[in-house]
Amino acid sequence: MATLKEFEEALREHGMNMALALLERLRERDRATRTVKPARRLTGQKMTPELARAILDLHASTGMTQQEIAFKVGVNQGRVNEVIKRGKWLSDDPHAPEAVARDKALARMRGDPKPKKPPLAARSKERKAAPAKAPAKARNQGQLALGDL
Question: Is the pTM of this model over 0.70?
Answer without folding.
Answer: no
